[in-house]
Amino acid sequence: MNTIFTLRPWARANNVALLHDYLCPWCWVGFFQAKKLTQETDIIFNWVGASLYPPELDGPASNPGPRPLPDPSAPKSRFDLFCDDEQIHVPLPRPGFVRTHNALLAAGWVKAEAPERFDALNEAIYRAYWERYENLEDISVLSALAQSVGLDGAALTESVTENRYDENIVRFDDGAYNVGIRNVPTFVFGASEQLAEANYPDLKRATERFLLRQNK
Fold it and tell me: What SS3 state is found at 135?
């Protein structure tokens, strides 16, 4: 039996879970891959926050704002080459480190309370961090983003402040590793297949296989 689906409530045979963290550059690419997949197929994603730096984990403090520009003479990294192949632009300079637990709580709130607006807020959060270097740890920033997509900023603030929906965030710890989640983004296609840091053609084929299984 596949332990992923016995131990994680978000992993169900009838949906595609997408584990992600706004902080992760690979997830910035995964966001556009998922958006394209929803445009080209009938797939609906179950977005699941997977915190790379949960509050209980010691680590660097948030330092929002752009990082220094990379050395133009340095060879391209595996990630840079991957982005070139995917034809997805990653803004330069890249944003500095921020803790994203509050942003994942905000996403959990909209997913539970106003699911029809999830995609709008999810995109707003990604773009705020990657394109405008906004501090996703700041609840006032998240509240303003909620209002920008027609949501109640005060309700979001209350939910995040009270740490609601925290239990829905996957911690990147031994528990995640023990059920096969070692990278974000990870696309979990029902009970049969999962892909992490994958190129679009592979994701498209996996999506088509998943939809075919659902239609049998």
Answer: coil
- Residue 113 makes CB contacts below 8 A (sequence gap 6+) with 155, 159
Contact 50, 19 (CB under 8 A): yes
How far apart are the C-alpha atoms of 211 and 83, rounded to whole Å?
27
β-bridge partners, 47 = 18
User: How many whole angstroms separate alpha carbon 86 and alpha carbon 80?
Assistant: 10
Here the tokens at position 153 are 């900023």
DSSP 3-state assignment of 130? helix
SS3 call for 193: strand
Beta bridge partners of 195: 187
Residue 4: its H or E element: helix 3-7
pLDDT in tens, 108-133: 999 999 999 999 999 999 999 999 99
User: Which of 124, 65, 73, 70 is closest to 97 using CA atoms?
Assistant: 65
